[in-house]
Amino acid sequence: MQLQDTSIMFALAMAALIGALIIGWAARINLEDQGARYWSWALLVLALSFGTQLVPSWNEPTVRAVTFNVPVLIAHTLWLIGVLEFCGRSGHRRAVLLAGAAMVAATLALTFVWPDRPTRIAVTALSALALRFTTALVLWRHGERGSAEHMVARAAALTLLLECSVIVLHIINGLRGVIPVVGSQSGGAAMSTWIGSLISILISAPLLMLLGTSRVVARLQQAAHEDLLTGLLNRRGFYLAMAPLWAREDRHHRDINVLMLDIDHFKQVNDSFGHATGDQVLAVVGRVLRETLRGGDIAARWGGEEFCVLLGDAESGGAQLIAERIRKRFSEGCAQIAELGSRRVTISVGIAHGTPEAQRFEALQERADEALYEAKQSGRDRVRFAA
Question: Torsion angle, CA of 364/366/367/371, rounded to 10 degrees?
Fold first, then answer.
């Protein structure tokens, strides 16, 4: 092997190894992310495949099919599985594994069963191209448009498309009869392949780490604005989500309703059945609100057993129907909690109706709270409108 080839292979091996360590470290930060683990394993396999090419006795074409071509296909398969896991499409994992196994089997068959080096190189390159292009396509479509995760995913996809262009060049060279090999016969075709791979690894590893890190940051931001027990917004998240809704309803001069909800005798539930059962009751509120409210409405756990709902573009009659539906579904949901036995748990609701241009949110919320107090005083398990 020439010195230039040795340097390129060593650089590729080190870049892949460092990338594996970086992604592995990122995976340890976010233990729920299986995708990053697959990326780390993929880069580790690549590092081993490039490292084997530094051993002169392993550069015979037949040996390279096992020490280089097969590991590269395995690495690309793991890379694609990792991306599918990360993007929440793990249901395709088995199909990818079968496709990767078929590609490896074809490479080995063209090496040992029907030896045909030009065909093997073409089949291996086409297999790698299919895996890399599919990975790029999944990343390109991932994430909510405009989000940080979406932008990073697209940057990673563009990097993989750059690698795909290098693979296409490799295939074109093969069709022209220029087969890149490592050693004394290697030339521009081989160098472009190695350098393209090096650039891809150096760019894609940090991008993948950034992609995983952006998800961790997003989850931390979500945790800061959500109540983990009910899955609803907390008060801070409510105010952030309310601002654009309030401005939109004000701009279109539409009515708005604020609902304040409170679980009746919740302290008695905790005292009689324990806090674990009380948590189940709180979770029922979260589930009922998510299932009952419309897409543009906002709900939050206001504190303790108290909840706040903001209904945009709703007449008072519509707000009452929604409130009654929530009250009924809550009791039905609590009846399914085995620990409560025959104990019936209810909820009271206060509603304040107005327009954004006429009243501040705080004023409407205070009126809804007064209506809630009236519902409590008049017997609980009912809906009351503010005067």
Answer: 130
**DSSP SS3 for 263:** strand
Strands of the sheet with 347-354, listed across from one edge = 298-303, 306-312, 256-263, 347-354, 383-385
Please give the CATH topology (third level) of the domain spanning 3-222: Rhopdopsin 7-helix transmembrane proteins (1.20.1070)
Question: How far is Cα 330 from Cα 263, in angstroms, rounded to an integer?
Answer: 9
Q: Which amino acid is at 80?
A: L
To the query of whether residue 305 is one of the catalytic residues in this protein, the response is: yes
Query: Which position has the token pair 């932008």?
Result: 151
Q: Which one, of 139, 141, 109, 140, lies nearest residue 127 by Cα?
A: 109
Rounded CA separation 120/182 (Å): 16
End-to-end alpha carbon distance in the chain: 89
Task: Give me 293's structure tokens.
Answer: 């409210």
- 24-53: per-residue pLDDT in tens? 776 676 655 667 788 889 889 988 888 887
CATH superfamily of this structure's domain 235-385: Reverse transcriptase/Diguanylate cyclase domain (3.30.70.270)
Q: Is 30 helix (H, G, I), strand (E, B) or coil?
A: coil
Give the sign of the dihedral formed by CA 275, CA 280, CA 284, CA 286. Answer: positive
- Give tens-digit pLDDT for 49-102: 888 877 777 667 788 778 888 998 999 999 899 889 888 888 888 999 999 999
State how far the Cα of 282 lies from the Cα of 301, in Å rounded to an integer: 9
Instruction: Report domain extents, the chain.
Output: 3-222, 235-385
Helix (H, G, I), strand (E, B) or coil at 385: strand
User: What's residue 5's pLDDT?
Assistant: 61
- Of residues 163, 305, 362, 366, which has the active-site annotation? 305
Judge contact between 159 and 200, C-beta under 8 A.
yes
